[in-house]
Amino acid sequence: MARDKIIERVFEELSSILGRRVSRDPVDLGLHAIDASSYYFIPKDLSERYVLTVPKDAEEVSEIVKIAGKHGVSVIPQGSSTDLSMGSGSISITTANQIYMLERGIILHTGMMSSIEEISETDRVAVVEPGVRIDSLNEALAETDLFFPVDPASARAASVGGAIATGAGGLRGAKYGTMRDWVLGLEFVDGLGRIHRTGCRTVKCRQGYDLTRLMVGSEGTLGVITKAVLKLWPRPAAISRLMAVFNDFTSLYRFFLGVRRGRVPLIAEYMENRVADKVIRTLGLGIPAGHTLILDLEAGSGEEAEKLLKTLEKDAKDAGAFYTATATDRDRSFEEIYRFRRSMYAGMVKMKLKRHIIFEDTAVPISKLPEFVRRVREIEGKYGREIALGGHLGDGNLHPHIECDLEDPEDRSLAFKIAKEIVIEALKLGGTSSSEHGIGSMKLELLLIELRNKGSEHTLDLMINIKKVFDPKWILNPGRVIPTEPGRKI
Ligand SMILES: Cc1cc2nc3c(=O)[nH]c(=O)nc-3n(C[C@H](O)[C@H](O)[C@H](O)COP(=O)(O)OP(=O)(O)OC[C@H]3O[C@@H](n4cnc5c(N)ncnc54)[C@H](O)[C@@H]3O)c2cc1C
Domain residues for 327? Predict the structure, then answer.
C-alpha cells in the first residue's frame, strides 16, 4: 500500500519535536483507536492514516495542533478513553445510518501530563494537569480533610481532562452536581495552537464571557485542556451506606422519596432486577437479585452514622425491602457495596459477549421517574428488545442499556430507533437526552431532536459559529458534538 504522504510529513515534523513520543506502530495505535463505546471498530490501515502523540506540556500540545492545522489533519484529544458516546480515542464515528472513519488524525494522549501541581487546603483548590486520574487526585487528598466530589463510576481510570471535556457527573451528582460546578479555571490550546488561560484560582470570578464553563462539556471540539484549577470540598465526617432490594421499582421509589424528604443523599443508585442479577453472577455473590437501591447519607460522626443506619434499614424493610445490607465508612463491607454498583457496566458487557450495549444517558425530573420507567417498559414490549435500566436515581439520570450488534446495519438501526424513542419520551417528560456522557458522535441526532423539541433548532448555528471561532480550521475532534462542517470531508 502506498504510504500516505501527508501522514509521513506530519509524522516527521512531530518526531522532530516529540522524539520517541510519536508513534505509528499499529499496536500503539490500536490501543488508542477505541474508547469504551466503540471497541469493535479498529480500522485496518491505522498506521497509514493516524499518528499517536504523547505530549508533556501545553507548548508541545500547541506545536501538535499547529502541525495538524498546517496539514489539515484532525486532532483527537484523549485521556483514558472511557468515553461512552463514541467521542474520544475512537477514530470511528458511528451514527444510526453509518459508521465512518476520520480520514487522517493525530491522537493526542494526555497520559504524560499527569502531575498534581498544587493542593491548597486553605484555598480549597487543586491545580492539576489533564492526565491526572480522578481517583489519583482523591488519593493525593487523603492526607487532608478535603476531597474532589465528582465521581464517575469510571473514576479509577477517567482523567480530569476527559471528565471536564465530557462534563462528567457521577454517583454523587444529586448532592454535588457535575464537573461544571467544580472547575474554577482552565488552560487550553485552541484550534490555531494558541494557549489560553481562563477563570481564576478564587471561587468568585468575573472575566467577561465565561469561557471556562463553555469549555466544560466541549468534548475536545473547542480546545485541548492542558491544566485545570479545581474546587475542593470538605469530606463528610461519616457516611451511612444502605443497600436495599425490592420486588418492584414503585416500592423502591417510594422509599427513596421518603429518605429524600428534608435531605440530599450523597448517592442514590438504582439497578433493576435483571442488571443486579448479572452483576451478582459476574461477582459471584450469594445475595438475592431484585430492584436494588444503594444509598449513602452523610452523618456528623461514626455513632450518628450507626444510628441512622438502624432507622434506614427499618424504614426500608417497612417499605417492602426483602434484603438489606448496611455499612458505615469505617466498615470493610462499605467498599464491597460500592463495588457492586461500580460493576454494573462490566456485568453488562460480560454477559452480552459479542453484543454491544448502547448506553443511553437520559435524565428526567425526579417526579417523572415512575412514568419514565413505565414508558421504557412499553417500548421494550413493543420491540421485544431488552432495555435494562440502572444509574443515578438521585438526580433522575437513569442509563437505559440497549443490546445491539453495531456491525449489523439492520440491528444497529433498530437499536438507535429504540434509543431515539426512549429519548423522545424523556423529553416529553421534561428531561434530557444527555446528562453526563456527552454527545460524542453517537448523539448528534438526539441533540438536534432535543433542540427542536425546545423550538430552538437555530441554537445549533450558534454552536457551529462558536466552533468556528475556537477552531477555524475545524480540526479538533471533528464529527463530535455538532455535525461536521457542511460539505467538509473529515
Ligand atoms: C464503566 C464506566 C462507567 C462510567 N460512569 C460514568 C459516570 O458515572 N458518570 C459519567 O459522567 N461518565 C461515566 N462514564 C463515561 C466516562 O468515563 C467519563 O465521561 C469520563 O469522564 C471520561 O474520561 P476519560 O479520561 O476516559 O476521557 P476520554 O474518553 O479519553 O475522552 C472523553 C472526551 O473528552 C475529550 N478529551 C479528553 N481529554 C481531553 C483534553 N485534555 N482536552 C480536551 N478534550 C479532551 C475527548 O476527545 C472525548 O471527546 C463511564 C464510563 C465507563 C466505561
Answer: 238-340
